[in-house]
């Protein structure tokens, strides 16, 4: 059986689960549509996707968002397509794993938000410090995460990958084609 036959295909829906370092479930997204899978990456879209928090609260995403996960980078990227432009929410997180149940990763608290005007903000530094001590992330994890923040900022500054308007347009257009095909 080929690798492609085992994994999700374009147009399939998957669940995404984020965990905390101690193994506890943090957040679940149901029915993320897969737009592309490759050996190292998965691109999908959330659009009115049901999200369940660890405390049981549930909410639905408001706007279409292109999601990008990679097996070698310690971050994932959510490009939220809004009327005033694209906003990005980037989670510092372990590289993803994909099994029959879901795409899974460990969320490491730190987030980078990018606004439509290009302004960047590093979020949840206090949360990162607190959880790092509570769960003993260790020097190696801390070093890897800080290096990946630098990589992420470089991508943002140079409009690489998900941070280019052409990328967002391409994948949003592909999503709309798949939606039309399924109706």
From TrEMBL:
Pfam families, alphabetized: DUF402
Protein origin, superkingdom: Bacteria
Gene3D superfamilies membership: FomD-like
Keywords, ordered alphabetically: Hydrolase, Magnesium, Metal-binding
Family matches, as InterPro entries: DUF402, FomD-like_sf, Ntdp-like, SA1684
Domain called DUF402: residue spans: 22-160
UniProt GO MF annotations: hydrolase activity; metal ion binding
PANTHER family documented for this protein: PTHR39159, UPF0374 PROTEIN YGAC
Protein name per its UniProtKB record: DUF402 domain-containing protein
């Amino acid at each position: 059986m080929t690798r492609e036959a085992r994994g999700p295909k374009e147009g399939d829906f998957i669940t995404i689960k984020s965990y905390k370092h101690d193994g506890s479930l943090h957040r679940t997204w149901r029915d993320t549509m897969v737009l592309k899978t490759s050996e190292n990456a998965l691109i999908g879209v959330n659009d009115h996707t049901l999200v369940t928090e660890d405390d049981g609260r549930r909410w639905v995403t408001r706007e279409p968002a292109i999601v990008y996960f990679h097996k070698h980078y310690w971050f994932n990227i959510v490009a939220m397509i809004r009327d005033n432009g694209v906003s990005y929410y980037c989670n510092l997180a372990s590289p993803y794993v994909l099994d029959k149940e879901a795409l899974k990763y460990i969320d490491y608290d730190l987030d980078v938000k990018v606004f439509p005007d290009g302004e960047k903000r590093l979020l949840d530094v206090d949360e990162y410090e607190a959880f790092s001590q509570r769960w003993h992330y260790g020097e190696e994890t801390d070093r890897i995460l800080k290096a990946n923040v630098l990589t992420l900022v470089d991508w943002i500054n140079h409009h690489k990958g998900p941070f280019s308007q052409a990328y967002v347009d391409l994948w949003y257009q592909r999503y709309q084609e798949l939606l039309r095909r399924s109706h």
